[in-house]
Amino acid sequence: MTDHHESTGPDPALSSDSVRRVSQYQTAGVNARLRLFALLDAQGVPASEADDLVAALEAGAVAGAQCEVVELDGMAPASRGSLFADGWDDGVRAVSEALVGIADREWSRRGGRSAGAAQLAEHIADVRRRERADLVRLERFVRETVLPRTHPNTTARRRVLEALGEAGGLCTARTMELSSGDVILCTREAGHYDPDDLPGWKRGKSDGTPGGWHVANASIWDDSAAYSHPHVAAE
Asked: Which residue among 69, 153, 180, 232 is least packed, with the fewest CB closer than 10 Å?
């Protein structure tokens, strides 16, 4: 059984903007309605009865809001004067009547909503299947065409692996290019660093090999500088 609890603060998943927050509620409501119709259908509840149940819930929710609005009648701040109070009460009554009309409309829309919800749910499922198929084709293209064209231990290869979600075993060492201020990420696998494996120019050679040092693009660095971080795997 799912535990229920009272909220102790605003839901961080909801927008602080009231218009966007209402949109989030509307989306959640549509998803909940589809889910409820599907559950009722799985339990063998006739479509007409499912329509009545959902209509009653939605009309009841609007009616509950109307009750809260009615309680604002006569609650205008006394300091604002009688004209403000009259306008306040007129506004409360207008909103109250509008909510009653919405509740009436929700109650009258009982027929056929279950069948429509089933069709919408099937359409959404079909769209999601096509999206998944597109993602599979895109991943295959990246893996079979883009990845083989990148060179080992390069930033380009790192970015491709990150896009594939396979960069977890890469070194996380980074340093700062002092001349430009750019952050340089190591592009090799974690655990590669060997302070005794010196680059070519340190061994009196001109082959330019990085040895066990870090390399990215045209920059090579060791792990002795304070701004370099340990080269471990990303979590």
From this structure: 180
Sign of the dihedral defined by the CA atoms of residues 61, 63, 64, 68, in that order: positive
Tokens of 132: 């998944």
C-alpha closest to that of 218 among 150, 153, 149, 146: 153
pLDDT in tens, 180-232: 777 777 877 777 777 777 777 777 776 666 677 777 666 777 766 655 655 66
How many angstroms separate the CA atoms of 58 and 113, rounded? 12
Q: Which residue has the tokens 């309680």?
A: 71
pTM over 0.85: no
Cβ-based neighbours of 126, under 8 Å, separated by 6 or more: none
Compute the Cα dihedral for 97, 98, 101, 107 and give only its sign.
negative
Q: What are phi and psi of 214, to 5 degrees?
A: -80, 150
Burial class of residue 212 in the structure, from the number of CB atoms within 10 Å of its CB (0-12 exposed, 13-18 middle, 19+ buried): middle
Residue 198 has what DSSP assignment?
A: -
Task: Indicate the pLDDT class of residue 94, thresholds 50, 70 and 90.
Answer: very high
| Cα–Cα distance measured from residue 132 to residue 125, given in angstroms and rounded to the nearest whole number | 11
Q: Which pair of tokens denotes residue 228?
A: 């370099």
Q: In this predicted structure, which of 122-126, 149-153, 155-159 has the lowest mean pLDDT?
A: 122-126
Q: Which two tokens stand for residue 66?
A: 């109307």
Interior angle at CA 226, CA 221 and CA 230, nearest 5: 70
Per the CB < 8 A criterion, the answer to whether 200 and 221 are in contact is no
pLDDT, tens digit (0-9, with 9 covering 90-100), for 53-66: 888 888 888 888 88
